[in-house]
Amino acid sequence: MVRVQPASTKSHHGARGPGALPRPGILRGVDLDREELARWLAQAEHTLASGRRDVLEGDYDWAAFKAQQAAELALKGLLRGLGQPTYGHSVKRLLEALAQAGVAFPGELVQAAQELDIHYVPARCPDAYPAGSPHDTTPCRLAPAWGPR
Questions:
Q1: Are 74 and 20 in contact, with CB atoms under 8 Å apart?
Q2: Residue 83 DSSP SS3
Q3: Residue 15: exposed, middle, or buried by beta-carbon count in 10 A (0-12, 13-18, 19+)?
Q4: pTM of the full predicted structure?
Q5: Residue 74 near residue 41 (C-beta atoms within 8 A)
């Protein structure tokens, strides 16, 4: 079984910068396409940084969607780096695919994935609500974690 260690407590870039690959030892004994993983992680980090800027501007609908997208990109990158197929947009299902590939991760990631998946459609599509637009109704639960309101 592949074991993925919890992330460092440093900033999301750590000391290595955007698009940095996991530290040696995170994925031991795994045939990993590091180049494929790196390009997906670079896009995930770019998307996450854009979402953080959206929070600062009060654009919580886009920040919520971009948080989901960043997680999706990172997980798809890991799956592709492991040579596994990737389908769909559900972060929870991508985690399940990683588990099937033998990657272990903390259980609380599944709950976080479900929270992110909630924002995939409603954060962008007015018809996800009976009235109003996503920018009027998207909760700003992500804001405290990303910066000031």
A1: no
A2: coil
A3: exposed
A4: 0.74
A5: yes
